[in-house]
Amino acid sequence: MTTLDQPALGEPGGYAPEPDLGTPPVASQADATVTIDGRQVTVPAGTSVMRAAAVAGIDVPKLCATDSLKAFGSCRMCLVEVDGARGTPASCTTPCADGMVVSTQTEQVQRLRRNVMELYLSDHPADCQGCARGSCEMQAMAVTVGAVEARYGNGRDHLAESSYDASNPYFDYDPAACIVCSRCVRACGEVQGTFALTVEGRGFDSRITPGGTDFLSSECVSCGACVQACPTSALQEKSLIELGMPTRVVDTTCAYCGVGCSFRAEVQGTGEDTQVVRMMPAKTGGANEGHSCVKGRFAYGYTNHPDRQLHPMVRDSIDDEWRVVSWEEAVAKAADGFSAIQRDHGVGAIGGISSSRCTNEEVYVVQKMVRAAFGNNNVDTCARVCHSPTGYGLNQTFGTSAGTQDFKSVEQADVVLLIGANPTDAHPVFASRLKRRLRQGAQIVVADPRRIDLVHGPHVEAAAHLPVLPGSNVAFVNAMAHTVVTEGLHDEAFLRERCENVDSYLAFIARPENSPEATEEVTGIPAEQLRAAARLYAEAPNAAIYYGLGVTEHSQGSTMVMGMANLAMITGNIGREGVGVNPLRGQNNVQGSCDMGSFPHELPGYRHISRPEVRAIYEDLWGRTLDPEPGLRIPNMFDSALAGTFRGLYVQGEDIAQSDPNTQHVEAALRSMDLVVVQDLFLNETARFAHVFLPGTSFLEKDGTFTNAERRINRVRPALPPRQGKDEWQITCDIAAAMGFPMPYAGAHEIMDEIAATTPTFAGVSFARLDAEGSMQWPVTDAAPHGTPTMHVGEFVRGKGNLVETVYVPTTERTNRRFPLVLTTGRILSQYNVGAQTRRTANQTWHPEDILEIHPADAHVRGISTGDLVELSSRVGSTTLRAEVSERMPAGVVYTTFHHPVTGANVVTTENSDWATNCPEYKVTAVEVGVANARGLTDAEAAARDEREPAGRS
Amino acid sequence: MSTPTSTPASPEAGPDRSALVRAVAEHHRDQRGPLLPVLHEVLAEFGYVDAADVPVIADVLNLSAAEVHGVVSFYHDVRTTPPPTHVVALCRAEACQAVGAESLYAAAQERAASGEMGDTEVQQVFCLGNCALGPSGTVDGRLLGRLDAARLTELTAGWR
User: Fold this and answer.
1) What is the rounded average pLDDT of the residues A679-695?
2) DSSP characters for A503-566?
3) Would B105 be classed as within a structural domain?
4) Residue B64: its chain A contacts at CB < 8 A?
């Protein structure tokens, strides 16, 4: 794709689909030079004639070929003639050989193509909607090949009697328009890896079907790859059917998970009248390379939802009604209120929370406002509750708070160790890449309490599933490292050359208490199974670790991150493609919000606030003296609020009342404050306790950058102006200015310029360079002007890799007779986090409520059946939800999602947290489950029993 | 998108059948190209592949249900409904057509439609390799040559 001249990203101009070179690129050392229609072109040997022709600027007609799929050779439209060869081979399946001379437009092939096209048209409806709309590739191709005759009769459309399938909320299937080219079937398999589509029947009766049922009840995950691949209007977005063709394209970045997919927002109209017709994944996107999931592709309707707030509002007390006011009044109320609190209760009595959903620029100005205008360091971010241990752990061991690889790296991995992550639901586009690699023969070891889809499924079979019990991760990773070291499988040369604390670590890990046999009881993993997995990981040419919140959201989250870093270092799996330690970040910009100095102890670029030379950079630029002491973390803010010393909070785009642990505690803290300012799209749960509400912008209205889990800085470009009339960074700047600290910027690009000027790892970043390069992975420096896909090559960022002794300390959250089960939490494909966005889209079709998964044995003894309403209670609270009896769960562990405020799963989670970063221990809560309204013991009886419980909470 | 954790069994296919189908699939799972041998064995056991068998086979063989459905729907001989009591298959290929297969086929269909053959399905096949002795056919799996309407009536007499 890079060989084609493409218009600069974001350049306005009419609508055109992305260029399609027909077949995928070929990686080859050797080149082949061929002559096509008189033009010479040099391509990697093995490249198809079709692709070579496209590179040379010659479009060979095609129907069944597209460059995201392997050549298929079924449509017979791309026939060419090759000098010295007999017949008319299909150019998609014919590889280029050096010196080949090809003609794509001889009279013979033109005649053949016309005839083939006539045959297609003879079985295509004469009144095809797609042809009329202009969305049909076949229609365009018919014009190209000049099929004007209709010698085979017109429109005997034998698929017309098949029923139109409108069951999927986002796209329709119209068999009448289908030409059975199998592009959809292949896209579902090759690109998405779900294999939900097939060709039913044979011969003339062949038709595409999602397995003999309708789309909604099939295995389809609604990723949209088939719709994207369809060359007719047989599979078509409902939005396109309703609105018609787009008129322009805005290149931007998805605002859901940390994969950070690049999208083309295909829109109609300009200015405030802009309407999004559809979101198409961009093939030029570094993270997704043309693929998408149901959220990014389809679930953008929340941006227009009636619940969306478009006016600033204030109220004097949280019991009053909201009053719509002007921006000026709302900003003044916030600024005056914060100033008053500081006058009466001290500089440290207020603070701010930045959002991992907002852009780098929006986050940067929040921390700048807190540090310079508020004059303290009471700034934190929602990454506190998800990946703060990643930042801490990887910084301690490698010297940088981020993953080591790009996503593409997984294409080189031979063994993947997946820990505490469920990518097919939470990071679907990465999961598709991973599954493709598994189909090529790589192996996967899944360490997760649940039997997730990557353990067993279509064309996926894990080499091992290690159902590690919640809370025992560190014991597990130590046992892995113990096996590697004591069986002599470690990389001695790598350790001696690249790492420090080698001898003390090796002595520590070899201790018998770290052996798989000794840890078997706490981890629940049979020793021999764990040893086999460790050997597989250690002996692979390239072994990579991928992990998620199942690692971080524990009392030993940071220790576990360091334990995985140790495992990678002792096996030398760092510093090249196909290896590494890779967090799968939860939110679109959780990496960026951490990079931007959102933590109370760190300025942008992870530089500690106590370092005078770093503070000096900002003090000189901002003209304010910065406090050298770290400020309050989110949990400390709540505690201080209840103690009366913290009284004002600015919350940017995070629903702390729903997403933070122990909801009752959070609500009490919020209720006790004098001024809570919430900036969000919706009146969320936190806004119930707010005095000022500032409406935010959706990603379709933002101008800025998101940084994904692979450190890739992607541009977010506005498809339409802010619907509430103000950029979000401008709101923050207005509050700061009203408090006497002007932060003037002409645009978001100037904020990035300030970030680049003050942060070494971002030195080479600017909107102009991002627009030119598409995206860049930090560090972007003079030494790496195009960014750094793989980190720690040759040398760790901190110099020597630091092996840390990771002692296993069990969590204090234990099960006992009263709370005998362990609750762990996770995400599901169609929903996203607290659901603020996805619950306001048709994604509700798939997951309208949170479900509690429970093992059949645990369900049986409690008399629970699938569909029963059950009460889930822990030491801190209880909630009610529906149960599903599931063999995915190990006995003793129950699981739920946390997408719906009605359920409020965090009502039951405790205040336990990571020792280093306070990241909450969401993944381990001792609970009991019972059929609702049949609880058995009363609270008092149970409490009395619990007092006698020897293994009570310490 | 939903990932059912247990397969809902259709009325005809009880839990016993599901367990048996699983055992059949597991027996073949490690061989190369296991799907057709599995389908053959399920057909031998039950006479047809039930819709509820598809996800079970898919699960064991690491395939999607759609993939298994695609293969099942491709082969005429992979039945998806319970087989009738009797099957009469008549050759309609060229050699047999030349010696009267078409009128035989029409007569057989008429007789089946009249109910005089009981629960019988008349199928068409294209060549049984018995061209010298056409019209050919099979009656409940037994290959027969020189068939005509009278002989067919005789063979199927008493089928009710």
Assistant:
1) 95
2) HHHHHHHTSGGGSHHHHHHHH---HHHHHHHHHHHHHSSSEEEEE-HHHHSSTTHHHHHHHHHH
3) yes
4) 194-196, 198, 211, 219, 458
